[in-house]
Amino acid sequence: MNKRAVTMADNRAKLISAARKAFAEKGYAAASMDELTAEAGLTRGALYHNFGDKRGLLAAVVDQIDSDMAQRAQQIGALEKDDWQALLAEGAAYIRMALEPEVQRIVLLDGPAVLGDPSQWPSQSSCLQATRQKLEQLMAQGVLKTVDAEAAARLLSGAALNAALWIAASATPAEVTAKAVAAFRMLASGLLTAPAGN
Known about the structure:
Layout: H1 3-26, H2 33-40, H3 44-51, H4 54-77, H5 83-96, H6 101-115, H7 122-140, H8 149-169, H9 173-189
């Protein structure tokens, strides 16, 4: 990588870091681009060059956080004894992350309000494909009923995302989280070839 490319990558990282902090503390609408760029030690020109505008910067921040969430959920799933329990644990972990203030404000409240339908975000698309592959493996193992893997992945991913959105908008997020995780597990268990617990 040449020096210019390294500088650009470094500037992008600084701007995303400063924006992540500002958006979490103040929210997207109240975050000042002048304060944000000053915090990063850069100019507005660097922001526009790297992201186009404030909305483009939010998209980059959301992508980073949402990708981090997926990675953390996968790490939690990897601790489970089998692939089915891993899939359930990943979904439940993603839902529970809606309790985190940064996730709530940036990904679940400001993100959809500014960037539109979360199911169309690149980070959600990669998560969807990973879920589809896991479902295909579980079907091949005979753990799950044979069903269109993409349809099932979209419905499970959508259930987890909508549960997280519900939690973020709730006046009683901890109570809603418990209900959402229980319902998600029950919903997902309908895919099993044998009833859960057998």
